[in-house]
Amino acid sequence: MAEELIISASADKQERYQTLIPQIDALVSDEPDLIANLSNIAAALKQAMNFFWVGFYLVKDKQLVLGPFQGPIACTRIQYGKGVCGTAWKEKKTIIVPNVDEFPGHIACSSASRSEIVLPAFRNGEVYLVLDVDSDSLNDFDDVDAKALELVMRIIEKQL
């Protein structure tokens, strides 16, 4: 696949995801390197969805370690159960936070972040990495994002 996304500027969120997900699948399907693929997925999500920050944290040595991302500099390590990412890892589920200032223990890697969604990817039933997406607007994520980004996580899991 050419390294170019085709997304209609006039499409709504649901339509952008429907167009983007097959392109992500095609982009990574023939590339065996996980880091290369996570890098391209982060870039594709940022470009197509105009997220403030999008990136991955990989489970290493019982903590989450920053992986490929797009956006401002980020926290490098997150402990199990801490912040939204650590909580998604601990609870093994997608977490949507409408207002990060109201999330107990939120880790403010950027003061511009206002809302967040975090999704885990699994290998052998255990969380292997999480996708973290931040917005600079309140209440920016919903079930449309959760369902679509969970499909992205299934694409990633095929490579784990």
Keywords:
6-stranded antiparallel sheet; alpha+beta; 36% helix; 160 residues; Beta-Lactamase
Report on the architecture of this protein.
With 160 residues, the chain is α+β, with helices and mostly antiparallel strands. It has four helices and six strands. The chain has a six-stranded antiparallel sheet with strand order 3-2-1-6-5-4, sandwiched between helices. The protein has a single domain, classed as GAF domain (Beta-Lactamase). Helix 1 (13-29) runs antiparallel to helix 2. The protein starts with 12 loop residues before the first helix and ends with a helix. The protein is globular, with a radius of gyration of 15 Å.
SSE map:
Layout: H1 13-29, H2 34-49, E1 53-60, E2 63-70, E3 77-79, H3 83-91, E4 95-97, E5 115-123, E6 126-135, H4 143-157
Antiparallel strand pairs: 1-2, 1-6, 2-3, 4-5, 5-6
Helix pairs in contact: 1-2, 1-4
Counting DSSP E segments of at least 2 residues, the number of strands comes to 6
Structural class: alpha+beta
What is the number of helices?
A: 4
For the report, how would you describe the main beta sheet? 6 strands, antiparallel
Instruction: Give the low-confidence spans.
Output: none
What is the domain total for the residues?
Answer: 1
* Beta-strand content estimate: 25-35%
